[in-house]
Amino acid sequence: MNKEYLGEFEELVLTMVGILQEEAYGNAIVGEIDQRVGRKVNLSAVHVTLYRLEDKGYVKSYMGGSTNARGGRRKRIFQVTNAGLAMLRARKEQQVQLWKLIPQLKMSAL
Amino acid sequence: MNKKPPSLASRFLALYCPESLIEGIEGDLQEQFEYDVKQTGERAARRKYVWNVIKFFRPAIILRNKFRNHLFQQHMLQNYFKIAFRSLWRAKVHSLINVLGLSLGIACCILISLFVRDELTFDRMHKNADRIYRVYSREDWGEKQQFFNTVTPFPMGPALKDNLPEVEHQVRVNNINAQLKVGESQFNETVVVAGQDFFDVFDFKTIVGDRQQALHGQSNVVISKRMADKYFGTADPLNKVIAIQLGENFEDFSVKAVAENTPSNSSTQFDVLISELNYPKLYNQNLLTSSWFNIIPETYVMLKQGTDPTAVEKKFPSMFRTIIGEDNFKKSKYAPGLQPLTDIHLNTNYPVGIAPVSNPKYSYILAAIALLILFVACINFVTLSVGRSMQRAKEVGIRKVVGAMRVQLVTQFIGEAIIVSLIAMVIGAGLAFANLPLFNDLAGKQLLFPLNGFMILIITSLLLVIGLISGSYPAFVLSSFKPIAILKGALQTGSSKQNVRKVLVGVQLVLSIFLISSTLLMRKQLTFLQNKNMGFNKEQLAEIQLNVPRGGTLATRVNAGFEKAERFKTELEKFPDILAVCASAHDFGNGAWTNVGYTDDKNVYRTFNLNIVDDEYLPTLKMELASGRNFSDANPSDKRHSVIVNEAFAKEYGWTDAIGKRIPGKNFQDHEVIGVIKDFNYASLYTKVQPLVIVEDPSIILSGIENINIDNSPIPKLMVRLKSGNMATATTQLKEVWNRVSGEEEFSFAFVDQAMAKQYRNDQNLGRIVSIAAILAILIGSLGLYALASLAMQNRTKEISIRKVLGATENSLLVLLSKEYVVLVVVCLILSVPATWYLMANWLSTFEYRVAIGFDVFLLAGSISLIMALGTICFQMLKTVWTSPMKNLKYE
């Protein structure tokens, strides 16, 4: 598989990591996706995707500070890397390019 | 915050989740749980928690980091390679033995896998192979009159096609022998007559010409590439004329297509192919349209996509009841059926039709032999590696001290095994390639050495299997050493390891003895076949096929043949090197003689074989009469009145004095038995001599029979007894006479002893393959034994030296050292006897005439292995025994 390849769900999760910044961890991302795109996603799926993105080098992670919530466990916070950002940008441009190629429908044609 | 998630689920999570991830995941789950408790209550939250934990149980989580072994770093690999080559180089002899043994095993495996593949892929090259069926015919008239055949009546194919919508195509195929004329030259060829849909059913490829239309014209002919080269050389064969003798006259056919030579793994083989539109010229109308009990061609049907053959077969009874009539149907219990095309080649439960059938046993035996040899070679590898483990022990110790993990060591040693097998593979593939012609000859195949996916699959799987099998035991033994023990020098060769090696060598020996004794037995049986007194003298006896024009009944053609034979006889009698000439409807080594069946006066159905000869037959073949006399020209009534039977015949009918008796069938013409001939083997030695009747005029018998089974053309053959010592001149004289009498016709000439030997070709080849396997097994096994002995001697050097110092003689030392090997050979001999006995008795049971399995064979096999074993180790022993003890002891 091409290393540069980014799946649809991977792209969504990567974008959310970018949006959430310091608060980008598993649950928050699930919530954010629900809120912004209205899609119920699985926590485990998000985790797996995050690890895969990490393998690909688009995000990196560190453990956040401990709180009393979560039974004292720390959050694993994810951060978009430069490569990830470049990837997101490239995807956006690609999509815009492609969109431009579609003959725009005119109302009269309908 | 006092609600806790289910602890069982948490524990499960902790069990499978990698440590690095657990905190983040558990935290997230806990957070979700706390949120859910507020939202939906504790019960629902707990349920959801459990469900979430289960959802996390997935490969991406469980296996994360497990497969990312950072220990495989490039420099370590480099080091492994370097060490592997160094250690191989250091023990040159051992490496050579390993590589040599393995490559022999690999070569055998490659060749035999090619063979087995060829056998298993028979007829699978047609893309519709799974829809093609051969029709078989089955009749049961009661009273030993059961007929089961894979050839069918002519009307079978068309009837199936017309009455059953499931049948997409039907093709009838049969072979005829015919004279061919191309320009001025004349050839004797097997012509295949096939249905017009032949190329719709079978995917034989054509090189030029229109394959779809090729068989839709009466005077079209399709020839193979081989024949195109033979007849026309480099010229374009399309539309060239070939004359084929179908009736009395030659008919012109024009070449409409040239087909690729039929693949060797195809049941249907053709060189010259013409359309069934020519049937009316070959057979009478009645036979072609309404004769349901004469079986000649093979009928193939192609069913429509998705048709269940058993459903089609279920329609047969009602269909045949109407076609052949209620009465016939009841009497004959007519029950044809369908046999899948791909089943034909290896299913020996069906009688042989036109397509050859081979026994799958042959494939199994060969595969077993290949695996045995490979196994013996692998054992060598294991014994040698374990034997050399002492030398490698220090390396293992140091590696462990420096921090190598056991997995690394195992990988290293398995890797070394794979390197060795890789080298062996290259040599083995080369050996296989070089020996393919020899193997083809042995196996009777035309196999090619393909560089395709199959070959790559075989090679890689062999590589992995050998590497893993032969590498894993040494790898685990070596890596289990305790570093402290090694480095302190306290490590001793455990006697258990010695025993493991001895067991392995024992297994090799058992296999070698098994193969040697099998070889000896097979050789004994094959020589027996060659030298068995057949009841006639088959030396310097030649058989020559006569050609008689087609057309007219078989009887007139047979007569025409005998007339032609008379012309030859008068011509040939002039030569002093030709001792005797006779004519006979059947010759030797070319399949079954005509078999007839009749119901005798006590209403018992009986069968016997029939041969038509002239009065010179008995003296020419040097057969002996048990009683009575031969046919004689001086006695004119012999021609119309007399028959000779063999002893088996007389015995079956319980005749003590057969002379003057009559064969007890109502409708036979008036006749009497004038002589009883001593039994001679006119078929092969696989079967007993069957009752036989010899006549000069077949009509005596033919008038009274109910069934006749003609497998081989009864057109007469000349049998010529040549003077020994002058074979070459005699054969040229024969050829000259032939040209004078028969003109351009092809001269087909064979010696009877050779033709008869051909019947045992498969068994002779099997014998040769087993003896080659035996030689290889002994060779590889002795290599292993040699290496084993050299290691054992090294370990005992000091013991021997001390014994010498204390006054042991060289002889006593040799006895001491060789004792355990002798015991080993004897034990192995005893172990191998039952297996050999069982398998060989099985093989011998296929022969009606066979040798007995005696202990002499096993003794001989045992002594051969013992001599081989002692010969192999004696060099090592002598070296140890002869070395001055001072050399070995002075450093102590």
Write structural notes for this entry.
The complex is a heterodimer of chains A (110) and B (892). Chain A is mainly α. Chain A has one domain (8-109): Arc Repressor Mutant, subunit A (Orthogonal Bundle). Chain A contains 4 helices and 2 strands. In chain A, strands 1-2 form a two-stranded antiparallel ribbon. In chain A, helix 1 (8-20) crosses helix 3. Chain A is elongated, with a radius of gyration of 17 Å. The N and C termini of chain A lie far apart (41 Å). The model of chain B is unreliable at 67-71 (pLDDT under 50). Chain B is globular and about 110 Å long. With 892 residues, chain B is α+β, with helices and mostly antiparallel strands. Chain B has a 7-stranded mixed sheet with strand order 16-18-17-19-15-14-20. In chain B, strands 3-4-9-6-8-7 form a 6-stranded mixed barrel. A 4-stranded antiparallel sheet of chain B has the order 13-21-12-22. Chain B is built from 31 helices and 22 strands. In chain B, 53% of the residues lie in helices and 15% in strands. Chain B has 5 domains: 7-62; 75-122 and 359-492, no CATH class; 129-343, no CATH class; 513-523 and 760-892, no CATH class; 541-758, no CATH class. At the A-B interface, helix 3 of A face helix 2 and helix 3 of B.
Subunit arrangement of the protein: heterodimer
Mean of residue pLDDT values of chain B: 83
Strand order of the largest sheet of chain B: 16-18-17-19-15-14-20
Helix content of chain A: 40-55%
Q: Specify Rg of chain B, calculated over alpha carbons.
A: 37 Å
Taking pLDDT < 50 over at least 5 consecutive residues as the criterion, the unreliable ranges of chain A are: none
Determine the structural class of chain A based on helices, strands and strand pairing. Answer: mainly alpha
Q: Kindly report the CATH topology of chain A.
A: Arc Repressor Mutant, subunit A
Q: Name the structural class of chain B.
A: alpha+beta
In one word, what is the shape of chain A? elongated
